[in-house]
Structure formats: C-alpha cells, structure tokens
Amino acid sequence: MTPPVQLATSNRALARFRHATPTPRTALLGALLWAATMGASALVNLSLLDSWVTPDKIRKVSLLFAGGGALAFPVGLFAARLVSLGRGWEVAFAAAMVCLAVVTIGLTAGLYALQYRSYYAEWHAPVFTLTWGLQFAFTMAVALYQFVVLGIRLYFPLGFIALFAASLWFARQRR
Questions:
Q1: CA 42, 43, 47, 48 torsion: positive or negative?
Q2: Where are the transmembrane segments (predicted)?
C-alpha cells in the first residue's frame, strides 16, 4: 500500500505536468511559426553571405533549422511552463527565453549531428563494435562543436528577435 504522503506528492507532480502541457493547437501553431522563423533566420543569414556554396545547400541548412525549430517549440514551451508555474511574469519571461533558446539550439544541433554522422557513416567500422562506438561518439562531438561555432550565428538577429517576442507572448499568457 502506498503511503498517503507519497501519493499526494505523486498527484501534485502529475497535476503540475498536466497543467504545464500546452494545448495541441498552441503546440502545433507555435511549432509551425517557430519553424518558419528559425528557417527564415538561417535563410536570411546565408543569403547575405557573399559566396556561400549553392542555393541547394542554403535550402538544406534552412530546412534543418526549420526542423529543429518545429521540434523545439512544444518541448521548450512545456519546459518554460513547468519552470514558471505559479510564478510572476518576470520568471515566465526568463523561463521562456532560456528554455526556448536552449531547446531550439540543442535540438537543431542534434539534427545537424545526426546528418553529419550519416555522411561519415560509410567510412566507419561495423555497427556496435568498440571502434564504431568511438567513431560515433567523436563524430557526434565534432558535429556539435562545429554547430556551436558555425551554426549559432545563423540565429542572429532574426532568431533572437523572435525569441524575445515569443518570451513576451509567453509572459503575457501566464498572467
């Protein structure tokens, strides 16, 4: 039999998770808008670079950023709501800024690392060997490092402006 204190704590945590979960409509519309904005941010930045490879590569990178944004918005929104539940608008604003930024960068970097890994996979050892494990780990680490060094700049200034606007929207919704 479960002790009453443990049961009450479990119910409270479940209620917090339920309350922090965004509605499907908000998650879907937000993900589409966030994806379009993050993809546009990358597209604008890459288009401004004088001789950046080819239009096809610019399109692929923009789609990668859009995909990362689409995946990140519902997760970032959930995390921000969970962190700021029952707190003031300042905390809600800060939570949205941090959660959306970290999750967007993290998931986009993860997608980039998976794409990077798939490119180098043909030169790697057979799957699930020790050598393959090391190659996998180091390839992913290099891809994440490369994204941090070269990819984050594609969020500025449009992505940062969108982050600020989304955080203001979130803080106003939490009132």
A1: negative
A2: 27-49, 61-80, 92-114, 126-148, 154-171
